[in-house]
Write a structure and sequence with these properties.
Structural class: mainly alpha
Helix content: over 70%
Number of strands: 0
Oligomer: single chain
Distance between the termini: 54 Å
Number of helices: 6
Length: about 150
């Protein structure tokens, strides 16, 4: 059974051999210069912790938004401003957020490979910002639902 370092050495040897280099055949030639296994372990743990933190924050904000809108639609000022919406309309307000998330996921699935990670994250951020502006500036129910 080979270790990760042995696999790295073997891959480096094959790469150099395919490039036509003969210096890799010398027994004293260093095959690879990579970080130590301990450093790789620390970097891996930090990546997992940071990624998990950002995912947890995203999940928290998704749930927070869904919970906040449930409280907001019960305010008297909300009902007065939007002319006493019925229960079907208030249910639609809450559920359009989940529908938008589902639509965004499908769109991301289609375009992520073509555009790349950075561009799809930037596009998603812009769409989210526009949605926030629409919700904050909503003068009618359709505008509020479009922003969600």
């Amino acid at each position: 059974m080979t270790t990760n370092m042995e696999t790295l050495f073997a891959a480096d040897y094959v790469r150099r051999k395919l490039q036509g280099r003969t210096d890799c055949l010398r027994p004293d030639y260093p095959l690879a210069s990579s970080p130590s296994p301990r450093l790789l372990s620390i970097m891996g743990k930090a990546t997992v912790i940071l990624s998990s933190s950002f995912l947890a924050i995203g999940g928290f904000l998704f749930g927070y938004d869904s919970g906040i809108i449930g409280g907001v639609i019960s305010f008297d000022t909300f009902k007065d401003y939007f002319h006493n919406p019925n229960s079907t309309t208030t249910g639609a307000i809450v559920s359009t957020f989940q529908g938008g998330a589902m639509l965004g996921t499908i769109i991301n699935m289609i375009f992520a490979d073509r555009l790349g990670r950075k561009k799809t994250i930037a596009a998603g951020s812009i769409v989210s910002l526009l949605g926030c502006v629409l919700q904050a500036a909503a003068v009618n129910m359709a505008m509020l639902m479009a922003g969600r």
